[in-house]
Amino acid sequence: MAVSMRDLDPAFQGAGQKAGIEIWRIEKLSPVSIPKSSHGKFYTGDSYIILKTSASKSGALRHDIHYWLGEVTSQDEAGAAAIKTVELDAALGGRAVQYREVQGHETEKFLSYFKPCIIPLKGGIASGFKHVEEEEYKTCLYVCQGKHVVHVKEVPFARSSLNHDDIFILDTKSKIFQFNGSNSSIQERAKALEVVQYIKDTYHDGKCEVAAIEDGKLMADAETGEFWVFFGGFAPLPRKTTRDEAKSIDIVATRLYRVQKGQAEPVEIESLTRELLDTNGCYIVDCGIEVFVWMGRNTSLDERKTASGAADELLLGLDRTKCHVVRVIEGFETVMFRSKFDSWPQSTNVAVTEDGRGKVAALLKRQGLNVRGLMKAAPPKEEPQPYIDCTGNLQVWHVNGQQKTLLQASDQSKFYSGDCYIFQYSYPGEHKEEHLIGTWFGRQSVEEDRVSAISQAGKIIELLKFSATQARIYEGYEPLQFFVIFQSFLVFKGGLSEGYKKHLVEKELADDTYKDDGIALFRVQGTGPDNMQSIQVEPVASSLNSSYCYILHSGSSVFTWTGNLTTSEDQELVERQLDLIKPDMQSKLQKEGAESEQFWETLGGKSEYPSEKIGRDAESDPHLFSCTFLKGELKVTEIYNFNQDDLMTEDIFILDCHSDIYIWVGQQVEYKNKMQALAIGEKFLEYDFLMEKLSHQAPIYIVMEGSEPPFFTRHFSWDSTKSAMHGNSFQRKLTLVKNGGPPPMDKPKRRTPVSYGGRSAAPEKSQRSRSVSFSPDRVRVRGRSPAFNALAATFENPNARNLSTPPPMVRKLYPKSVTPDSAKLAPRSAAIAALTASFDKALPAKEVIIPRSVKGSPEAPKLSTEAPEPSPQGNSKENSVNNVTEEAPKPKPETIQEDVKEGETEDEEGLPIYPYDRLKTTVADPVTEIDVTKRETYLSSEEFREKFGMSKEAFYKLPKWKQNKLKMALQLF
After folding, report:
1. Residue 632: which residues within 8 A CB-CB, separation 6 or more?
2. CA 396, CA 382: separation in Å to the nearest integer?
3. What PANTHER family would the database entry show (predicted)?
4. How are beta strands 433-441 and 420-428 bridged, if at all?
5. According to the model, what pLDDT value does residue 210 have?
């Protein structure tokens, strides 16, 4: 398409050069730029053009153009907006997708630019309207519809406007009320609260009150009564309501029109195929609620303008002026457009060049304008980051049928291609220990082992109360996080499982399992010592690649081969991997092009081999989808310009990064739906909704709300306090709106997360151990000793609790674990003996230390320096405890100076100490300000030994599964 300066409106010069939003208003049939301070303000009497520019990871700029028509804008202005949109597309190189937006029927993509909503203002510029500026605050009633984005419309302030299906917002001078229709969903109510927050900030300076009114709530509620007063008192709403969308147009059969001389001429078709579209013409595809205008690459600017006008006339004649109209250019069709065709080729032979874009850039450059944005930017060079703490603890199991065997540390990075493995990686998170449970499937592994691995990994996740992130990984598609966890990863050919061996027998295949004294060729890859890998390949010359280094061994001979395209860093990795594969043998260096005859003989002779680097699909810009999964069918809805607030705790969402797929599962998702999360991910890969050629073996992560790993949250502006809130989506957002933000988290920080640089970097002193709670190198924190806390728990008064709280009801499911030695010890005498031994010298007989009880409240009172007054009605048990020597006069208790905060008891690790009964979830007043996954760490050493029958050090040396069984048996979870 030829472009000249007369085709370009001066207002568009320099547009689309950087990411962001640009808006023009049609004034006197010409576009006029709108300042950023007025973005989001649309008047009902005007027409606007909106340009959204996005920068992809490759550095290229993408454009979407929308033209918005107010409900009372003039036909001339609407026509000018449509034509000027085509001109703007031409100025950007003729690649942008163009959308027509009608007030009240905007696309979700358009509304996502102006979150949480747009509220059109009455008035206009050229249409003869005046902008409304009221001196006194006007009470307004708005209706809100939408689960992911909110359509907001002002309705008459009358009872007849209310119904049971929608959400309504009543905005008064001093208070904002949200009325939730009884048939509305939790998600719709939560999204409407974002509109309440917008109105509060925009029109009330964030200072007015907010009230939520439930449809059908009794008038006894004060705020409900206050709401109905504005409508003249309470009266029941009608059961059935009529909406604007009374007539559905989804049933309209798909029709094809060709634009000829400004008119839409129908084309008779049996089925809709790509071959029907001619590159020299413009077409209209009528799909009911959406109408597409397709413009061939060889059409002129005037032809495209004519096609746009023909589509508007067609809809006007069909009385469907509120339909979405989307204009696409040949070669840049949207996924939605292509999905309407029965057949669409994977790639079309369209000569897409930079000519149009370059010519426009040259024209603008002559006028002294910066045209960098019109040319493709160079892709930024970034080192990939794993986004995970690499100082955690790794356990690996080999799967053999229905059994799994824990591998030794020396073997946990050595996998076989014919087998399946389960790995558990525990690492310090921001507020608690995080877990990544993964399954790895070798290329040659059998289905029986894969199913078993998934099942057994699921049991581990259930033991962790669904707080772990789950990963499904196939050989050859491992993400960077996987490699940095394992550091030195080796994959051998063959397998050791019974299922794999049985498969070889059934298929009559030779067993090529790796043998230490046989012929083996390994390709060495990775970006550094933190993520190096050796992959065994066929020992033939065609397996070589100029971009890699290789290790070849045969009997007593070992060769290292370096390709011409490798770097010194690659060659260093070979030496490191050689120490793992053949540590006691000297290798013979072979450089590409100067190999010895013995090297080629070992490989069976010379042959051609590639030079291109092998790699996974590059990560693309992420897309977020809300999904429903019913009877094996997956339905998804894309959420545009997403953020953390779009993740609803009742739903499941899919984050598609092309190379990785994340399934985010909310805390309030039903159990049966949680168990289908992996199936949802596999279905998503199978359907490939964005037609981006997703691999069925791409890694799938199951991410549970509240335990999101850093490699997931990096795609958001993440606030961990929001995911830690309780309640459903509506209750959480109501708290945010009323309080102005999320409540502070009470969970103690166990450990400072380290940078994501890998384990080779020297961590800080407090980060070197796998678990700080039992690190032998950690400096002892000055505070109350374990013996002191044991004595405090022994002497506490059980009657000192708040009498308004009912006594805790404890139902023991398992008998308490007791060792023979601990059963013989009297807890009180043992605690006193431990206390005596903890002091440098014995105290005089008359000086008795009596700690106050810490059981009634997390904040214990200070130890008094004066003796307590005698109780008029003494308890015999209390007297027997407090009076160690009856004949001796009651002494003044001494004050013990300790480096602890007021009202807090600490152990030698600096953690608060709580009585055992308050750490159980079945009691009436459990402790809340602790990490619930590590309840046992808050016990004193003596009470820990009493409950578990062993010391803390011995407990933490047990395997993780034994620790979990003990915790469950003692009801600490």
Report:
1. 683
2. 31
3. VILLIN, VILLIN-4
4. antiparallel
5. 94
Report helix, strand and coil shares of the chain as percent, to nearest 5.
30, 20, 50
Q: At 972, list the tokens.
A: 């600490």
Strands 30-33 and 623-630: unpaired
Question: How far is the C-alpha of 321 from the C-alpha of 313, rounded, in Å?
Answer: 9
Which pLDDT score is estimated for 893?
A: 40
> Which residues neighbour 409 within 8 Å (Cβ) at sequence distance 6 or greater?
none
Largest CA distance in the chain: 117
State the virtual CA torsion across 560, 561, 566, 572 in degrees, nearest 10. 0
d(CA 767, CA 372): 46
d(Cα 747, Cα 928) in Å, to the nearest integer?
Answer: 8
pLDDT at 592: 95
Burial class (CB in 10 A: 0-12, 13-18, 19+), 328: buried
Q: What is the pLDDT of residue 358?
A: 52
Going by C-alpha positions, the residue among 937, 898, 916 that lies closest to residue 827 is 916
pLDDT score recorded for residue 196:
96
The candidate with the shortest Cα–Cα distance to 323, out of 243, 246, 249, is 249
867: which DSSP letter?
P
Q: What is the pLDDT of residue 970?
A: 66
- Both structure tokens of 646: 């779009």
The answer to whether residues 751 and 772 touch, using CB atoms and an 8 Å cutoff, is yes
The reported pLDDT for the residue numbered 617 is 73
Interior CA angle at 212 toward 211 and 218, to 5°? 110
Quote the CA–CA distance of 665 and 153 in Å, as a whole number.
32
Mean pLDDT in order along the chain per 10 residues (973 residues): 60 89 94 92 95 86 94 92 92 91 94 94 67 69 94 93 94 95 94 95 91 82 89 81 47 85 89 92 91 93 90 86 90 91 70 47 48 47 79 95 94 96 93 93 96 96 92 96 94 96 94 93 92 95 96 94 93 92 91 94 94 81 91 90 95 95 95 92 93 92 95 93 88 90 57 45 36 33 42 45 36 35 43 44 39 38 40 41 40 39 49 71 69 71 75 78 72 57
Q: What is the pLDDT of residue 808?
A: 38
Q: Both tokens of residue 874?
A: 């003494």
Please give the C-alpha separations between residue 546 and each of 204, 520, 534, 618, in angstroms, as whole numbers. Answer: 66, 19, 16, 21
Measured CA to CA in angstroms, residue 690 lies from 24, 31, 513, 659 at distances of: 31, 34, 40, 13
Residue 442 and residue 420 in contact, taking contact as beta carbons nearer than 8 Å? yes
- The predicted pLDDT at position 220 comes to 66
3-class SS of residue 478: coil
3-state secondary structure 281-312: CEEEEECCCEEEEEECCCCCHHHHHHHHHHHH
- Number of neighbours of residue 767 by Cβ within 10 angstroms: 16
The strand ranges marked E within 585-723 are 588-591, 623-630, 633-639, 652-656, 661-665, 700-704
Please provide the size of the chain in residues.
973
Q: What value does the CA radius of gyration of the chain take, rounded to a whole number of Å?
A: 35
pLDDT at 967: 75
Q: Provide the whole-model pTM.
A: 0.74
The answer to whether 770 and 424 have CB atoms below 8 angstroms apart is: no
Buried b (16+ CB within 10 A) or exposed e, 348-367: eeeeeeeebbeebbebbeee
CB atoms within 10 A of CB 747: 17
The burial class, CB within 10 Å (0-12 / 13-18 / 19+), for 37 is: exposed
Q: What is the pLDDT of residue 130?
A: 52
Cα-based distances in Å from 972 to 24, 939, 942, 943, 946: 62, 11, 16, 13, 14
